[in-house]
Amino acid sequence: MQEVKVTCRSEDSYPQLPVRLVWDEEIMQVTTILSRSRLPDGLVFRVKTNGDRIFKLYYQEEKDLWSGQEE
Which run of H or E residues covers position 49? Predict the structure, then answer.
């Protein structure tokens, strides 16, 4: 798993909707949120990007840190 930069749309709370991520210096648009779940220390989003790549994004709330892995 590696650190990743994620841009989110947040209306009621952060983060609600990941819209863009930077993976190995490549900027990708999130086209579909496949799933979202809560862990004791944060949130997990499984997303599909342009180019049909799928990523699992982890947000650690206390550290305000995103990490991820490509599936």
Answer: strand 42-49
pLDDT confidence band for 1 (50 / 70 / 90)? confident
Which tokens go with 61? 């709330």
Confidence of residue 46 (pLDDT cuts 50, 70, 90): very high
Distance (Å, whole) CA 50 – CA 48: 7
Which residues have a Cβ under 8 Å from the Cβ of 30 and sit 6 or more positions away? 18, 19, 20, 21, 47, 48, 49
Per-position b or e across 18-42, b if 16+ CB within 10 A of its CB: beebebeeeebebeeeeeeeeeeeb
